[in-house]
Structure formats: C-alpha cells, structure tokens
Amino acid sequence: MARSIALNRRRAERGLESVPGDAERSALSLDRVIHERTRLGIVSALAVNSALSFSELKALLRTTDGNLSVHARKLETAEYVTCTKSFEGRVPRTQFRLTPAGRRALERYLNHMEALIRVTRAR
Amino acid sequence: MTQITPIRPPGASESRLHDHALNDIRFIRQTMERAGVFTAVPGWGQVVVGGTALAAAFFASRETTPALWLAVWSVEALAAALIGVAAMAHKARMAEVPLLSPSGRRFTLTFSLPLVAAAILTVALFRAGLYGLLPGMWLVLYGTAFVSGGAFSVPVVRAMGYCFMAIGVVALFVSHEWGNALMALSFGLGHIVFGLVIARKYGG
Fold first, then answer.
1. Beta-bridge partner residues of A52
2. So what's the ipTM on this one?
C-alpha cells in the first residue's frame, strides 16, 4: 500500500503533465493520491493555512473521524502532509501541515485540470 | 460488413472529463475559501490594537469631561478599525487568499453589524447623558461581533467574544468609574493575549 502510493507519487512527480490531444490518457495518469475528494479537501485546506488540527479539518470538510484519519494517513504516507501529535494539558492534539511536495502536487493537479478543460474545449 | 456502433456516443467521455475537471477546480476553490476564513482574523493586528487601547485607557482616564473622554475612545475605535482592516489585508496577502472571498464577506458583514449598532447606541446614550453605560454597551456588542463573526472562524475567536461580553456585563452593573479599567483589561490586555494565541496557532 505504502509502496504503491510512493510509486504513484514518484510517477506523478516525473511530470506527467497532460499531453495535449490525449485527454483520456492524461486523466488516467492523474495523481491518485489527491484525486480522492477528502484528500483533495485536506490538501486544499492546508494550502491556505500553515497548520490545521484534526478537529478543524473534520469540521471544515464535514467528515467523520474514521474517514479523515484514513485519508490523512494516506497523505502522510505519500509525504504530502506531516502530522505532529502533542498534548494540550491532557487533551491530545493532532496538527497537520502541508509539505513542499504536497503543495507541488496540488499545483500539478490544478494544472492538470486546467489542461483537461483546455483540451476538451478546443475540440 | 458489420457496422460497429459505439456504446458511448463520441465526445461523451470528453464532456464527462470536462465536467469532472471543472467540478474539481470548483471544489478546491470552495475548500480554500472556507478554510481561508481561519486566517481572516489577524493575531498580530490585535496585539497592536491592544497596545493602542491601553494608551487610550490611560489618556481617557485623565480627561475630565465626558465629551473629551468620548473623543479619546472614538479616536481609538477609528484607529483600531484601520489597524484591523490593514492587518486583515496583510494576512490575506501573506496567505495568498482574496480578502473578500464569499466567506470573507460573510464574516465581515456579521462582524460589523453589531459594531454599527454600537455606534448608533453611542450617539443615543451620550445625548441622553447616559455615558456611564457606554463601556459596558461597547464591550457587550464588540463581544457579540466576535461571537457571531466567529461562527465562520476558529473556536478561539468565539471564546474571545464571550470574554468581552462577560466583562461588558460586569461593566454595565458596576460603578462607571470602573469603565476605563475594564476597557484596559478587555480592549487592551484581552486583545494582546488572544492576539498572541491566534498569531502563534493560526499563522500571524
């Protein structure tokens, strides 16, 4: 699992920028790590905040504890986000931050979507 | 020769891709806008406002007439508003989010309406000679602004609003001589303490 995500990320980072005229193929070469809605939401929210806690992300994305932790872990495995756990008094606090790789992945994803729109509109 | 009919009409998958891509971009933008509200309240700006409020409390306590006392606090309110807007704009620019995103506009509207009410009540109460009630009224409504605007922001913003409201209630029921001290405590120290918390935890 972890390996396949890391592989996927490397594949995405090698720059599978959309090939004009080949929309279908470029969609298949999408970065699967952030293609999923919750994960895309986490990365987008972290792109405009230096750090967000687990509960803030949960409220923001209107999702459940289980769902958020599963997707956050996938992003962590792909090294798109970092997660620090600490205690505030006795209350555990989990903070997420976007890594430079995560920011690049989001930019690439956005470029990709724009390219898709350009290509499909041009036809 | 048999004719091959495509199951999907040509172009259908492309228009699906097109819709999907548009949908994704819209989702990213909306998430960023909603998340951007977290950064809308500027911590460092509040620390500066706290400093000017402490100075205002000092000068206001030395004024002998109600009119001059009100003038000092009015100047402070104006200065705080200017600092607040400048700090919000600066923070939005740092985070590379638009200042007036739909959620930012919603925050600004809910935040500013109680303050407009406070300004109108200030004129009415002062004309009626009830200036002793002004500190309490200002604090309760300023707190209300943070609680209602804070509905779109992090919990600490609402907590700050409740603190201001509580101090305002105290101010309404104690002797008006306490007004300046309670405003120094809330507008001054309250802004500084909560401002530092916001700046430390929510990036500036």
1. A96
2. 0.72
